[in-house]
Amino acid sequence: MSENLVSAFELLPVYLSKHLRITVIALALGMTISLPLAVLAVRVKPLRYPALTVVGVIQTIPSLALLALMVALLVVVGSIAEPLGVEIQALGTTPTIIALTLYSMLPMLRNTVTGILEVDPTLTEAARAVGMTPFQSLWKVELPLALPVIIAGIRTATVWTVGIATLATPVGQECLGNYIFQGLHTKNWTWVAFGSAAAAVLAISLDLFIGGLQKAAEERRRGLALVSAAALALIFVGGLIGPMVVRGLRADPVAGPIDERIDANRPKGADAKPQAAPPAVIVGSKTFTEQYILADLIAGVLNERGVATARKESLGSTVIFDGLRNNEVDCYVDYTGTIWANHMGREESAPPWRVLSEVAGWLAERHGIRCLGPLGFENAYALAMRRDQAERLSIETIADLAPHAPRLKIGGDYEFFGRPEWRVLRDAYGLRFDQRKSYGSTFMYEALVDGQVDALSAFSSDGRIAAYDLKVLDDPRQAIPSYDAILLLSPRAAERGDVARALRPLIAAIDVETMREANLMVDREEDPQPISAAARWLRQRVD
Question: How far, in Å, CA of 105 to CA of 26, rounded?
Answer without folding.
Answer: 9
